[in-house]
């Protein structure tokens, strides 16, 4: 038996509670038969639903374990609606579960939010004439500051009724995210269109001072990466460019809020949010989670696609393998990825979000049926 890893499992709200158990099941099956790796799961309730029940976002035990003892953290989606139909909020106005989803990114200094946008064989894209050989990029979102840093406020007096969100961008955070993006590009195979290792800086530097600093530093850091090509786009234009020519993009780096928005657009190109995983990565800690949220519109129906959560799990195992120089988790991740790819390629068992286009006639399967099939392939 290999090393034992302690995993904090935080299903969160809505479909998080449906897809994270599936990720856990796949891991148990994968390592249970491999002898290469052992995982110890520490699962805790958290998020908006837990807040409604208890008045807290998570227990003290959950918080302490997650921040100080876990080797890696697996998170579902955060965000619940209260009995009045509105999003559950803390007294300070923040989303209930904020400490878990945003707090961890800031407190554990998880500065790189890595979001692979890859079109798998057997998955529909709304882009005419494009296929799996055209879409394979990674969005690297700055994850600790920018518009999502909690420097905001609200005045509600009759003659001073306004709100503000201060967007601070620092040289330090811009430097480390640029370095992360270039390093990633160095290790990849380049853009689908021409195999050029390319990092595109997506910002709004024609207008915003923070983006001017972000781009200036992107340029400075890039000078040291001779084998990687620098590329630029303003965020508004990029949304058009990526839809017209996704094959041009390899690694895309963006400040926090822009990175958030463009990653959902990325999801739309590759089968939806049920297909894109993420890792929130720092120098010591990391949280892995599907890019999607709690999806209240489908929660409880069994329709959630578990693949984003399963791919996040594979990313987590790969990160553990790299950090602890252990081949076991990397091999296990490879088996999980291989089985997911096979099931998608076959095209018979899939959730409703993927039953489109060429696959419109396929009878949609439930979340657990998809996982069952992935496990069957992994064992077979
Ligand atoms: P969402 O990502 O939950 O859902 C957007 C759309 O994508 C919905 O139509 C949903 O049905 C679909 N979708 C998402 N995941 C899917 C999956 N696995 N399979 C099939 N379809 C899927 O975004 P939203 O509806 O804007 O937000 C809902 C709640 O989640 C809000 O409270 C929001 O703040 C929160 N949220 C949390 C996170 C996070 O925890 N990281 C991320 C995004 C949104
Ligand atoms: C995400 C989500 C979060 C974010 C929300 C829930 C605060 O949209 O992880 O992409 O904006 O970071
Ligand atoms: Mn988002």
Q: Remind me, CATH topology of the largest domain?
A: Isopropylmalate Dehydrogenase
The helix-and-strand class reads alpha/beta
What portion of the residues fall into strands of 2 or more residues?
15-25%
CATH architecture tag of the largest domain: 3-Layer(aba) Sandwich
Strand order of the largest sheet: 2-1-3-12-11-4-5-10-8-9
Poorly predicted residue ranges: none
Distance between the amino and carboxyl termini: 22 Å
**Distinct ligand kinds:** nicotinamide-adenine-dinucleotide, 3-isopropylmalic acid, manganese (II) ion
Radius of gyration: 20 Å
Helix percentage: 25-40%
The shape is globular
Mean pLDDT: 96
- Please, how many helices? 11
CATH superfamily of the largest domain: Isopropylmalate Dehydrogenase
Strands, total number: 12
Number of domains: 2
Described by strand count, sense and barrel closure, the largest sheet is:
10 strands, mixed
Structural overview:
The protein is of the alpha/beta class. The protein folds into 2 domains: 1-116 and 274-380, 3-Layer(aba) Sandwich (Isopropylmalate Dehydrogenase), CATH 3.40.718; 125-270, Isopropylmalate Dehydrogenase, CATH 3.40.718. It has helices spanning 16-32, 48-54, 60-69, 98-107, 171-187, 209-222, 235-244, 256-269, 307-323, 327-346, 367-379, and strands at 4-12, 38-43, 72-77, 112-118, 136-142, 152-157, 160-165, 198-203, 229-234, 251-254, 279-281, 286-288. The chain has 11 helices and 12 strands. The mean pLDDT is 96. The two termini are 22 Å apart. α1 crosses α10. The strands form 2 sheets. Strands 2-1-3-12-11-4-5-10-8-9 form a 10-stranded mixed beta sheet, with helices on both faces. The chain has a two-stranded antiparallel ribbon with strand order 6-7. β11 and β12 (286-288) form a beta hairpin. The radius of gyration is 20 Å and the shape is globular. 3-isopropylmalic acid binds next to α4. Residues 15, 19, 77-79, 87, 95, 101, 272-274, 289, 292-298, 304-305, 308, 353 line the site of nicotinamide-adenine-dinucleotide.
């Amino acid at each position: 038996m290999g090393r034992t890893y302690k995993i904090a499992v935080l299903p969160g709200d809505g479909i998080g509670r449906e897809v994270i158990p599936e990720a856990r099941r796949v891991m148990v099956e994968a390592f249970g038969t491999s002898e290469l790796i052992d995982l110890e799961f520490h699962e805790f309730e958290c998020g908006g639903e837990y807040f409604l029940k208890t008045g807290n976002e998570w227990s003290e035990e959950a918080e302490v374990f997650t921040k100080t003892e876990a080797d890696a953290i697996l998170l579902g989606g955060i965000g619940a609606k209260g009995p009045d139909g509105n999003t559950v909020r803390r007294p300070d106005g923040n989303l209930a579960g904020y400490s878990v989803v945003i707090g961890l990114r800031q407190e554990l200094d998880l500065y790189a939010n890595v979001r692979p946008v890859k079109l798998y064989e057997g998955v529909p894209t709304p882009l005419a004439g494009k296929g799996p050989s055209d879409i394979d990029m990674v969005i690297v979102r700055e994850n600790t500051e920018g518009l999502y840093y909690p420097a905001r406020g609200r005045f509600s007096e009759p003659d001073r009724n306004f709100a503000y969100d201060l967007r601070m961008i620092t040289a330090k955070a811009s430097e480390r995210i640029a370095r992360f993006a270039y390093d990633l590009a160095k290790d990849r195979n380049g853009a689908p269109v021409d195999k050029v290792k390319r990092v595109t800086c997506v910002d709004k530097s024609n207008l915003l001072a923070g983006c001017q600093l972000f781009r200036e530093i992107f340029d400075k850091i890039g000078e040291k990466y001779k084998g990687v090509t620098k590329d630029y786009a303003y965020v508004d234009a990029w949304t058009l460019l990526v839809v017209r020519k996704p094959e041009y993009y390899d690694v895309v780096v963006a400040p926090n809020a822009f990175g958030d928005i463009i990653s959902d657009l990325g999801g739309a190109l590759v089968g939806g949010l049920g297909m894109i995983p993420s890792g929130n990565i720092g120098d010591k800690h990391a949280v892995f989670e599907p890019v999607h949220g709690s999806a209240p519109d489908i929660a409880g129906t069994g329709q959630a696609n578990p693949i984003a959560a399963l791919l996040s799990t594979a990313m987590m195992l790969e990160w553990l393998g790299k950090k602890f120089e252990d081949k076991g988790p990397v091999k296990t991740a490879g088996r999980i990825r291989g089985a997911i790819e096979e099931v998608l390629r076959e095209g018979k068992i899939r959730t409703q979000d993927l039953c489109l286009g060429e696959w419109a006639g396929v009878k949609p399967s439930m979340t657990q049926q998809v996982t069952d099939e992935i496990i069957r392939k992994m064992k077979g």
